[in-house]
Design brief:
Layout (H helix, E strand, L loop, with lengths): L13 H10 L2 E5 L5 E5 L4 E4 L4 E3 L8 E5 L3 E3 L4 H20 L6 H15 L2 H6 L2 H8 L3 H11 L16
Antiparallel strand pairs: 1-4, 1-6, 2-3, 2-5
């Protein structure tokens, strides 16, 4: 990759983010707790939070990105920054995986929404489309909708999920 291809300034617009991810350039999600990016592939979606690596060979075929909160993408300058970013990407995958331990789709959706409401601002979670959340956890969009209606998630009334929700 040539030096001109490297993005040195933070990338914040979702159209710019998608173009950079599809270019194959490795980037890192910059931001603080409560911010992330949802990367949509053809048949699934992945959640990558602060510090996680995005782009590179992981996301060449992504079709859509959804910023969650105020995020930006930055270029990891050193080898150690790249290594840490790869490690954090794995942790974010495990974060999602822990909510999918149940074979029952309704339970998976409930676990996942509980984790999201614990980690992100409830107003942000409410704005996320059911279709995207369903792709993240491997259920139908109707299942996410049913869980949202049944639990009527409020900041103070989030059901307890697995204690492994820390990233």
């Amino acid at each position: 990759m040539t030096e001109q291809a490297l993005a040195r300034r933070p990338i914040t617009q979702s159209t710019d983010i998608l173009a950079q991810l599809q270019s194959g350039q490795l980037l890192r999600v910059s931001g603080c707790r409560g911010n992330a990016i949802i990367i949509c592939h053809r048949h699934h979606a992945e959640l990558a939070g602060p510090g996680a690596a995005v782009g590179g060979v992981f996301d060449l075929n992504c079709s859509r990105v959804i910023p969650v909160g105020n995020i930006s993408l930055v270029y990891p300058e050193s080898r150690s920054e790249r290594h840490k970013a790869y490690t954090l990407r794995q942790r974010w995958m495990l974060f999602t995986l822990h909510s999918m331990e149940s074979y029952v789709p309704l339970q998976r959706a409930t676990n996942f929404l509980c984790l999201l409401y614990k980690y992100f601002d409830p107003q942000i979670v409410e704005q996320l489309p059911d279709e995207i959340l369903a792709q993240l956890v491997g259920v139908l969009p109707k299942t996410i909708s049913m869980v949202r209606q049944a639990h009527n998630f409020q900041p103070d009334s989030v059901p307890q999920a697995s204690q492994r929700s820390r990233v």
